[in-house]
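Tutorial sheet, problem 5. The four components below are modelled jointly, 484 residues in total.
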Amino acid sequence: MIITKAGRRMFPAMRVKISGLDPHQQYYIAMDIVPVDNKRYRYVYHSSKWMVAGNADSPVPPRVYIHPDSPASGETWMRQVISFDKLKLTNNELDDQGHIILHSMHKYQPRVHVIRKDCGDDLSPIKPIPSGEGVKAFSFPETVFTTVTAYQNQQITRLKIDRNPFAKGFRDSGRNRMGLEALVESYAFWRPSLRTLTFEDIPGIPKQEYAARSFRGRDIFLANPDSFSPHSLSRNLGSKDG
Amino acid sequence: MIITKAGRRMFPAMRVKISGLDPHQQYYIAMDIVPVDNKRYRYVYHSSKWMVAGNADSPVPPRVYIHPDSPASGETWMRQVISFDKLKLTNNELDDQGHIILHSMHKYQPRVHVIRKDCGDDLSPIKPIPSGEGVKAFSFPETVFTTVTAYQNQQITRLKIDRNPFAKGFRDSGRNRMGLEALVESYAFWRPSLRTLTFEDIPGIPKQEYAARSFRGRDIFLANPDSFSPHSLSRNLGSKDG
DNA sequence: TAGTTAACACCTAGGTGGAAACTT
DNA sequence: AAGTTTCCACCTAGGTGTTAACTA
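Model answer (structure tokens):
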């Protein structure tokens, strides 16, 4: 995932659907992003792999993205797909825009937090998320990603360009193609290859970002409003992601 | 003020600052727009005046714009200038976008409402604002305006074009000027007139919209958190606007 | 050399009044 | 004739990867 000094959105954005909330209870929904391991990585071009390149850099100030619809009732949250597309990542450790601060060339795992309102009174973008009764965390292994300041891999670049509306200007059909190549590719029978690029189409794609497709929408199930506790959380998580 | 079927922002937008709230109490801030009188108007070009042209059209479904930061603590509200720039006006009585529905060619008065959270549980964009203890309404006479679907008056048009960033394309310095006029106006000594147009500069400006300048920021004072009642409201209002 | 930064062209998304077509 | 609607060029605001310059 690209990170910049000014802050960069994730693409694709994390999107989840939640069930099992108490419709009349108020909740905050928040997201943070935690290191997967204690390593720094480098991308080895000839083998198209990320390899360990030493230990992780020193920790950065923890940041929390509080979903802008927070707080809202369980009913409201459950009725919609919850999108984190406004969340931004930065490598600026002195960031004062409330963006999530990460190290480049490290592996990270996003987490979604569901926080009952009465447990979230001290919720803040610059404080760690509280834990305990009334607070649940969810994470999906397929959403692990590696941070970069510039793409290391042409397939990832291609995928982003083809999928992100804001990158339309770099698509093959755009002005980017030059002369002969443009003409050749304008023939339909020559085109089926990369225009519809998905992860399934590229065996052996390096895990700069793993299974971005799955980001498009995950379901979170809470057993039921009464058993809303860290324990039932892990059971639920296990059954959905194991 | 322009109103359209799809919904049009007000320009300038209503902006207020509030003091006297209980910093730790939660409030909704909302806006509605009420008829000034029971009349329909027409613009008489030769006299540059709005004149009564019969009785008002039949009432439209009442709508409320709930400020998107709602609910928030008194502290949060008092720290910022509260802007209603996302609010939209429409003449579509069947509108389903939650916009405020008005009749064209009528006079209206925006009202700002401060609603203590425990009094606003049934707050809805399609229901009238509750009244009683814990709910206060504020309105400023200089924010009265007349609705139109097309400007009736070249001075208003000019004012909007000069002040609204989104209308920059119609400014004199843009491509709009034609030949000679452009050349003439490019001389600095010929320019001081309308480029810095304000209401003060135009004596006798017709009240299609009255004192837009004052929209830029009004202060609302609540006597103090303890006397938060409709009665103290009207006293405060009187002292600030009388 | 490997990684980062800043400026940039090219997009999406949506807010302006103008002008002509349309309605009543 | 008077008012409304639709389409449009022209903006603001901001999200993309590219590129070349920069940095350690």
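Marking note: Residues 4-5, 42, 91, 104-105, 148-150, 165-170, 174-175 of chain B lie near DNA strand D (CB under 10 Å from a C1'). Full credit if you identified this.
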